[in-house]
Design brief:
Elements: E1 2-8, H1 15-21, H2 31-47, E2 50-60, E3 63-64, H3 74-79, E4 83-92, H4 95-107, H5 109-135, E5 142-143, E6 147-148, H6 159-166, H7 168-172, E7 175-176, E8 182-183, E9 187-195, H8 216-219
Antiparallel strand pairs: 1-2, 2-3, 2-4, 4-9, 5-9, 6-9, 7-8
Helix pairs in contact: 1-5, 2-5, 4-5
């Protein structure tokens, strides 16, 4: 088993993703919205203290060796089919972002909504950077895409045990309530499989996106990866 935790520095927020979370569609924001985006970005970057941690386990008979955590459900078992190792990861923007969003909700909902959406985009950026760094340790392996707890029939009820296994509260300040919601709210838990000649490697497509069923781009026959928002 391997385990690490790190900090991540973001220099800018992906505006395209933030607007997607807002349901903005394929159009470009007007100049007033762009100015507001830049203002919110500055405040958010100052509030973010992005961290992530992970542990890597050998995988045998569909379970992580050396842990009582059960990889339950057909979805996660299919996801890890052919994998030899499994990465358990948690990432967070930290509590300062929650405080900023609550402050903005009192002062003005427009900025609060923008910052909330930008924070959702930011945690995905952190996960992308974390995954990139982690996978450098395993250059000889193929990898699956990130599979979150609660996807498919993989029970969200395992969130507490998952975080305890990572010692996430002590190491990066992430915990979970009785409804399985994490605090800080802009936090993510996920699993990545490692193996050779995998049938389902990470292609970055729409099939695993959490916005798949509600995406305006897909409704118009497009991909969010083809869209840009000029600064």
């Amino acid at each position: 088993m391997m385990e690490k935790n790190y900090r991540v520095k973001l220099n800018q927020i992906d505006f395209r993703e933030a607007l997607r979370y807002l349901g903005y569609g394929t159009g470009s924001p007007d100049e007033t919205t762009k100015e507001l985006l830049l203002s919110c970005e500055k405040q958010l970057l100052e509030a973010i203290d992005a961290k992530y941690l992970y542990k890597v386990f050998d995988l045998e008979q569909g379970q992580a060796v050396g842990t009582a955590f059960r990889l339950e459900g057909r979805s996660i078992q299919e996801h890890l089919k052919g994998c030899e190792k499994v990465i358990f990861m948690c990432a967070t923007l930290s509590a300062g972002v929650d405080m900023l969003i609550r402050k903005k909700q009192i002062l003005g909902m427009a900025e609060a909504m923008l910052i909330d959406s930008m924070a959702s985009a930011a945690i995905e950026q952190v996960c992308n950077l974390a995954q990139e760094q982690i996978l450098k340790t395993f250059p000889e392996y193929e990898h699956t895409w990130r599979f979150g707890l609660g996807y498919g029939d993989f029970p969200l009820a395992g969130q507490k045990q998952f975080l305890e296994l990572l010692d996430a509260q002590k190491r990066i300040g992430v915990c979970v309530n009785q409804s399985f919601m994490m605090t800080p709210t802009k936090s993510v838990t996920c699993i990545i499989g490692l193996g050779h000649q995998l049938a389902h490697i990470d292609t970055g497509g729409c099939h695993h996106c959490s916005m798949r069923e509600h995406c305006q781009f897909r409704k118009e026959g497009l991909s969010c990866g083809k869209q840009t928002v000029k600064r």
